[in-house]
């Protein structure tokens, strides 16, 4: 349609005072004439009609079908009217129209149902079967019998039977066929049923055998192509758990990738646990196995790049599978850890310690280190101290290396225990029955665990999980969730009851054994595990609230540790980790430190904080306050000058001041011990250990958050205390340790000033609440609408006024015309009368 | 069973006995029995109730009222003798009831007080001697003895005083307590228990009339009694002069300050006389100086006191220890008030800001949030402090120019520093804290943060909030732990041999 070009004189242009570029304008021009006409038309259609009907009680209704709707054409209207008429006639009860809406049936089935061909099988069978097999008469017979065949036929066949014979034969035949058919049908049905039941029995076996087949296939060798393909396949998968704090994201993405790989690898490894005969070609630096033979093969030289990833190709053969390449070298860091015997751990940890320092100086050559370490293990711990002391001084220069080796040594330590543990587990496996049902209640779980060693308990849970895998039965997922809750309760009771050294050690053993299974359970039913742990934390916090000055039971330590194992602690905010952190902080802030148990408890919590924050590099004041409080305790108080300390520590307490000179020979390990959580008497040896670990923790914390701009201020207080601790009484290693720390006094790293830029976007917003803004908007609208409505009413009135005056004028005019006419007529009459009179007069 | 029933029985017996006594004059030995039972110490509450029943009824029925005809000796009728005896018994029993106020058990104490006050109220309504024009009066001697018991110097009567506040809702009791107090105030140094009781009572006493004007001793149409506020204020001033002369232990000193701030200060005639006292208190340290600070603030605000180094004092109060005192919310509130003026020198406010920021580095989480908002408010009030957040020409500094040890805020050199601490706090473990410290990254809002809502927050509140926050995303660790140690960054096992 062509747009009608407007007469330029009819267009009204609104002048603009300020022209803004890019601003769209609706009201820059208007057509007053057109819009006025439109309005008048509209009023004529609506208001005028109403006006005409004003004060009238009757009105006409147009009930013709389709008359008012403009969308219908004339034909449509005609059709509609026609159908209406038909419907009207139809509605009259027609007495002759019988059973119109009755449903027709055939053999009790409605015809429509039959037409659906619901049972296609019989049809199919009949069509597929030989023609003779159907119960119907065959074609030839029909031709013969029904249509007589006629004379022609009879002549053709010699010795033909009579008609009666023929019929008899026919009946017998058809009966026989029917019977046969019935028989075969039953047989097939029976067979299928049997097959079905057999299949069900076989199902588990088959699924297993499939796996083993796969294994066998997978075992021989994996060529590079397969490996790369698999890698690519797994790489693409992103986990949900990657949600991280935004600042950290970039830094961590690299790390995350490695972790992802590691995870996939772990899953593959897990399937082969049973075969432990496999040999690892590569040995970690710390390997303690008796059958270890030092291998001088130069291929296995290791060095690490920034990520702690080795750049040397390593061939590892595991379960007959051999992997090679850079990516796979982490194969060695076997995570199946170890609940090995206690002495084992102890020597290991010492080993790790010495290793840690040794490697700072000689991290280039791992293999040399390897031998050194083994020798070191055999000789007394003391022997290494002399090199250590030198090394400590070097720590400053080689922090970075140290971090790597730190991780490395830990992993190797873990690796160390693997074989031993496997053996133990294997034994446990053999001793225990293979299936365990899930416990219905907590008591039955307790009963199952009674008198079982930690390894046995672990295996029991493992088997419970396996026997009740969620794919095997419907309710298993929920049941496993219940098992998770029971296990939490079990841990709780275990630690709550632990009161002497023996029992607490035992509880930690069991805890260590159960944790991997708990991890599995948590993966199975995420939501449930989340809820139950949250409930536990809430409950414990509720208890703590009632008695907030005393450190609660050990079970909280175990739960906090469990949380760090099950959930990613590095998240900016985590459903569970964050409340737990609040809880830990409150404990560290509020609980009074009075005896050895409190000290150790707090130290454990501080270590936990360190563990929670290592990845995220974040900071919690309470932990550092606590550690500096410990340092404060080690400062001898001279009485006159009161050295201030933050609560919950008291400025007068000096529990940890060393009284007499102490040498290193008399104690075994510098590590904290689980029994430290119990005893109340503080020995000299304990004091040294606490101080040693406190300093180490402080150092770790320092490295953790040294990037932060105020790190020097944060550590100012502990350093002040440190300067006040007399060094004479301490054994040499401890002394060296913290002097080294002191020289490391952090130099403030100055970051750039936060840059603040005002955002100016030209618009000024009133600052007010959303509700009020909404209300203002509505009020404005109301005002506008009221004005508009008033204007409309005014125009309506004017319109009506015009109409009225028009009517009035018209009626006046009519009246005038009438009067005129009457006058004219009357005048005419009069004139005629006058005429007559005049004529009469004239006649006289 | 029997043990349970026994007290029931005895209370019933006592009640029966009391009723017996009341029915006939011949049963006078019942009273003696009750008194004897009361003396032996068992079932004191029920004995008290029985005595209360007896004497309130006696007073109501005016049985102890001896008609006195002017200028005539009292006739020695048996009637009068009985009344005389009753009166003696009444005085004796009242003394015994008062004695129960010194009992060790709170239950007996409170029962004793209510008995004493009930009897007192009945006597007020039905006086023992006809007083002519007065419809009723308050038996002042009895009230005085009650007060003496309350202001004991042997035990802390906190519960008793709380119970007594119920009676202070009656205008007459309140008024006469005020009137009696000056005579009960010790002139020389009393012991601290007495002081504590005294101050506790004083804290509950109200200077002005109660709104609903009820009267304990008197009929409903008690138009005779007028409450004179000038009198009470005069009494208060008189008392306070004595109280200030006492020697105070730290506890009572604190209580004294609380009473002073909450009740007394507005009614004193010459509050400026207290300046020295407040100054001394300010130097004590801890909560006492905090309370004194509040007093001084009122003095400055209302009475035009000019105190030279008030900001220095306030500055010195921000020590790491404050986070573990009960009064930290008050301190934040007060310092917010003190620093609310926009005409303070910028380097002074900057010193406060820096000091707060330093403290935030070691504070508990809930306080860090308060401090962050407080710092934000200060910067909003003093736009010049934006140089602490955004200092384009500062370049780099190797150490913080701010001197934490400096006592004088003006010399601490804070204005040339920068708020690195807040930057650090953005890496706090808790999300709520980290985001509170994040305000320095965005343009400041135009309205100040509302401190009053968060001042009373505790760690528990933060815990509750965190627990309630719900997000559908539940993230699990994806690396299976080995034993109880993490694959990466295991620390517990490094430090602990478990």
Helix content of chain B: 55-70%
Rg calculated over all Cα atoms of chain B: 33 Å
Unreliable residue runs of chain A: 122-132, 268-407, 735-748
- Low-pLDDT ranges of chain B: 1-5
What's the overall average pLDDT of chain B, rounded?
77
Oligomeric grouping of the chains: heterodimer
Order of helices and strands of chain B: HHHHHHHHHHHHHHHHHHHHHHE
* Measured distance between first and last alpha carbons of chain B: 55 Å
Major β-sheet profile of chain B? none
Largest interface: A-B, 120 and 76 residues
- Please report the number of helical segments of chain B: 22
Keywords:
A: 844 residues, mainly alpha, two-stranded antiparallel sheet, 28 helices, 2% strand, B: 498 residues, 22 helices, disordered N terminus
Care to describe what's here?
The complex is a heterodimer of chains A (844) and B (498). By secondary structure, chain A is an all-alpha fold. Chain A has 28 helices and seven strands. Among the domains of chain A are: 109-199, no CATH class; 229-238 and 249-416, no CATH class; 592-755, no CATH class. Chain A has helices at residues 32-45, 47-52, 74-91, 111-115, 120-128, 139-146, 150-156, 163-218, 224-235, 246-270, 342-362, 366-378, 385-394, 399-431, 442-449, 454-467, 476-497, 501-524, 526-546, 554-566, 577-590, 596-613, 621-634, 684-705, 711-714, 716-724, 732-743, 770-843, and strands at residues 12-13, 29-30, 105-106, 109-110, 316-318, 321-323, 672-673. Residues 122-132, 268-407 and 735-748 of chain A have low confidence and may be disordered. Chain B contains 22 helices and one strand. Chain B has 498 residues and is mainly α. Chain B is elongated and about 100 Å long. Strand 7 (672-673) of chain A pairs parallel with strand 1 of chain B, so a sheet runs across the interface.
């Amino acid at each position: 349609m062509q747009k009608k070009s407007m007469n330029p004189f009819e267009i009204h242009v609104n002048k603009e005072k300020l022209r803004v570029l890019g601003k769209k304008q609706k009201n820059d021009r208007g057509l007053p004439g057109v819009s006025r006409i439109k309005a008048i038309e509209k009023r004529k259609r609506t208001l005028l009609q109403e006006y005409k009907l004003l004060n009238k009680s009757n009105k006409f209704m147009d009930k013709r079908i389709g008359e008012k709707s403009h969308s219908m054409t004339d034909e449509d209207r005609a059709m509609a009217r026609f159908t209406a008429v038909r419907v009207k006639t139809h509605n009259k009860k027609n007495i002759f129209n019988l059973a119109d809406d009755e449903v027709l049936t055939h053999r009790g089935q409605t015809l429509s149902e039959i037409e659906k061909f619901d049972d296609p099988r019989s049809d199919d069978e009949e069509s597929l079967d030989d023609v003779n097999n159907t119960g119907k008469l065959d074609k030839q017979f029909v031709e013969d019998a029904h249509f007589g065949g006629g004379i022609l036929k009879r002549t053709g066949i010699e010795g033909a039977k009579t008609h009666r014979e023929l019929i008899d034969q026919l009946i017998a035949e058809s009966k026989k066929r029917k019977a046969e058919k019935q028989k075969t049908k039953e047989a097939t049905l029976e067979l299928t049923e049997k097959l079905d039941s057999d299949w069900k029995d076989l199902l588990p076996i088959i699924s297993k055998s499939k796996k083993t087949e796969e294994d066998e296939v997978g075992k021989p060798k994996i060529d590079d192509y397969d490996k790369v393909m698999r890698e690519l396949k797994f790489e693409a998968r992103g986990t949900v758990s990657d949600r991280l704090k935004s600042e950290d994201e970039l830094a961590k993405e690299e790390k995350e990738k490695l972790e992802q790989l590691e995870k996939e690898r772990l899953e593959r490894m897990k399937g082969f646990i049973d075969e432990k005969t496999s040999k690892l070609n590569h040995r970690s630096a710390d390997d303690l196995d008796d059958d270890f033979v030092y291998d001088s093969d130069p291929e296995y030289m290791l060095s690490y790049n920034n990520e702690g990833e080795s750049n040397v190709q390593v061939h590892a053969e595991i379960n007959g599978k051999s992997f090679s390449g850079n990516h796979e070298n982490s194969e060695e860091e076997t995570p199946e850890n170890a609940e090995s015997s206690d002495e084992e751990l102890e020597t290991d940890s010492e080993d790790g310690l010495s290793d840690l320092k040794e490697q700072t100086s000689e991290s280039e050559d791992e293999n040399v280190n390897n031998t050194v370490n083994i020798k070191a293990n055999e000789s007394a711990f003391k022997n290494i101290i002399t090199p250590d002391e030198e090394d400590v001084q070097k720590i400053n220069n080689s922090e970075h290396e140290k971090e790597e080796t730190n991780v490395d040594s830990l992993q190797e330590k873990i690796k160390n225990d693997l074989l031993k543990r496997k053996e133990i587990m294997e034994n446990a496996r053999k001793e225990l029955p293979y299936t365990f049902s899930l416990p219905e209640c907590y008591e039955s779980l307790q009963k199952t665990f009674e008198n079982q060693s930690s390894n046995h308990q672990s295996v029991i849970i493992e088997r419970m999980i396996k026997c009740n895998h969620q794919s095997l039965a419907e309710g298993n997922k929920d049941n496993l969730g219940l098992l998770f809750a029971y296990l939490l309760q079990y841990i709780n009771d275990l630690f709550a009851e632990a009161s002497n050294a023996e029992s607490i050690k035992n509880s930690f053993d069991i805890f260590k054994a159960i944790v991997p299974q708990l991890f599995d359970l948590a993966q199975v039913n995420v939501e449930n595990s989340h809820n139950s742990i949250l409930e536990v934390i809430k409950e414990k916090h509720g208890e703590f609230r009632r008695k907030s000055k005393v450190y609660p039971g050990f079970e909280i330590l175990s739960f906090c540790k469990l949380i760090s194992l099950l959930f990613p602690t590095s998240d900016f905010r985590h459903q569970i980790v964050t409340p737990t952190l609040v809880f830990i902080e409150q404990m560290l802030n509020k609980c009074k430190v009075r005896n050895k148990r409190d000290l150790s408890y707090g130290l454990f919590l501080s270590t936990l904080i360190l563990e929670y924050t290592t990845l995220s590099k974040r900071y919690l004041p309470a932990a550092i306050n606590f550690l500096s409080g410990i340092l404060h305790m080690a400062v001898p108080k001279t009485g006159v000058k009161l050295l201030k300390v933050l609560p919950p520590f008291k400025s007068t307490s000096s529990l940890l001041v060393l009284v007499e000179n102490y040498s290193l020979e008399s104690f075994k390990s510098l590590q904290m011990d689980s029994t430290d959580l119990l005893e109340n008497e503080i020995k000299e040896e304990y004091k040294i250990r606490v101080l040693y670990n406190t300093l180490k923790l402080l150092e770790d914390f320092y490295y953790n958050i040294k990037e932060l701009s105020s790190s020097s201020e944060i550590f100012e207080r502990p350093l002040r205390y440190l300067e006040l601790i007399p060094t004479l009484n301490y054994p040499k290693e401890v002394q060296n340790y913290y002097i080294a720390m002191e020289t490391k006094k952090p130099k403030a790293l100055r970051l750039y000033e936060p840059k603040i830029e005002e955002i100016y976007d030209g618009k000024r917003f009133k600052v007010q609440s959303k509700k009020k803004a909404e209300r203002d908007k509505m009020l404005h609208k109301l005002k506008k609408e009221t004005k508009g409505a008033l204007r409309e009413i005014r125009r309506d009135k004017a319109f009506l006024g015009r109409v009225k005056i028009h009517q009035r004028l018209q009626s006046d005019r009519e009246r005038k015309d009438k009067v005129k006419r009457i006058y004219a007529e009357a005048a005419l009459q009069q004139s005629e009368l006058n005429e007559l009179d005049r004529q009469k007069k004239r006649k006289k | 069973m029997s043990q349970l029933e026994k007290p029931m029985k005895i209370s019933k017996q006592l009640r029966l006995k009391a009723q017996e006594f009341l029915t006939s004059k011949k049963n006078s030995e019942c009273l003696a029995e009750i008194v004897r039972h009361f003396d032996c110490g068992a079932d004191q509450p029920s004995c008290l109730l029985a005595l209360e029943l007896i004497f309130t009824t006696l007073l109501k029925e005016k049985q102890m009222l001896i008609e006195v005809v002017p200028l005539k000796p009292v006739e020695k009728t048996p009637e009068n003798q009985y009344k005389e005896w009753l009166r003696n018994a009444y005085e004796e029993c009242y003394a015994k009831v008062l004695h129960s106020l010194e009992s060790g058990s709170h239950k007996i104490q409170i029962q004793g007080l209510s008995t004493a006050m009930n009897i007192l109220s009945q006597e007020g309504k039905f006086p023992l001697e006809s007083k002519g024009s007065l419809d009723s009066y308050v038996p002042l001697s009895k009230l005085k003895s009650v007060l003496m018991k309350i202001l004991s110097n042997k035990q802390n009567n906190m519960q008793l005083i709380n119970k007594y506040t119920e009676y202070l809702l009656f205008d007459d009791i309140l008024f006469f307590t005020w009137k009696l107090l000056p005579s009960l105030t010790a002139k020389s140094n009393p012991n601290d228990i007495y002081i504590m009781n005294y101050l506790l009572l004083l804290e509950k006493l109200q200077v002005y009339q109660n709104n609903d004007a009820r009267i304990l001793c008197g009929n409903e149409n008690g138009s005779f009694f007028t409450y004179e506020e000038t009198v009470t204020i005069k009494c208060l001033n008189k008392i306070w002069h004595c109280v200030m002369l006492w020697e105070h232990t730290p506890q009572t000193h604190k209580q004294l300050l609380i009473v002073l701030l909450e009740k007394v200060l507005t009614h004193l005639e010459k509050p400026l006389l207290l300046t020295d006292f407040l100054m001394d208190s300010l130097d004590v340290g801890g909560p006492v100086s905090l309370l004194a600070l509040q007093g001084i603030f009122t003095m400055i605000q209302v009475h035009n006191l000019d105190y030279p180094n008030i900001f220095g004092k306030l500055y010195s109060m921000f020590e790491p220890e404050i986070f573990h005192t009960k009064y930290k919310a008050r301190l934040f509130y007060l310092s917010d008030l003190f620093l609310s003026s926009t005409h303070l020198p910028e380097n002074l406010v900057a010193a406060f800001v820096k000091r707060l920021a330093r403290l935030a580095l070691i504070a508990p989480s809930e306080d860090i949030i308060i401090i962050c908002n407080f710092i934000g408010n200060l910067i909003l009030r003093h736009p010049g402090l934006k140089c602490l957040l955004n200092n384009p020409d500062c370049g780099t500094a190797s150490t913080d120019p701010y001197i934490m040890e400096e006592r004088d805020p003006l010399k601490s050199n804070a204005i040339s520093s920068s708020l690195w601490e807040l930057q650090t706090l953005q890496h706090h473990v808790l999300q709520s804290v980290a985001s509170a410290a994040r305000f320095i990254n965005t343009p400041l809002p135009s309205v100040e943060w509302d401190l009053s809502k968060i001042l009373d927050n505790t760690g528990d509140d933060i815990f509750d909030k965190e627990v309630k926050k719900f997000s559908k995303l539940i993230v699990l660790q994806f690396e299976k732990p080995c034993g109880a140690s993490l694959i990466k960054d295991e620390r517990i096992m490094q430090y602990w041999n478990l």
